[in-house]
Amino acid sequence: MGNRYLKFALNGILGTAVETIxxxxxxxxxFHNYFGNYIIAPTIAFEVELLLKFIISYYWIxxxxxxxxxxxxxxxxxxxxxxxxxxxGFIVRMxxxxxxxxxxxxxxxICNLIAGALAGSLNFLFAEKIVFRSVGFKQLLPQGYQxxxxxxxxxxxxxx
Length: 160
What we know:
Blueprint: H1 2-30, H2 34-61, H3 71-104, H4 108-131, H5 137-159
Helix pairs in contact: 1-2, 1-4, 2-3, 3-4
């Protein structure tokens, strides 16, 4: 896991560089108001970064955990999972970004870099433990459902 974390960190640095460039272009040349600079531009930059980082994660970091069966289906389903779970990390990062801007009045680029660094570990945990785990996400759902079903049956006699 340590080797994957190092690769993930390198991927994060590359992703942050790309995201920062996209954010700089958008906030300096496209958007000229608070909503555009602090909401829309970081969201677009995040999605560009996310796609790049997923491709690198899929083919370099977690390539040994990828299903060898139908790689195209695996790529799409894992990208959707990656996007879903890292969007939660993005929400955390946006909260930090907006908080830093309100408290310190820093530039959006500085706020985004610091917030991204803090949210990075959360993103690694999502990728390592959920998206690219050896047991697929879809296989976990029936297990979770069975666990809930057992608990409901056990509580049924007590509650009712």
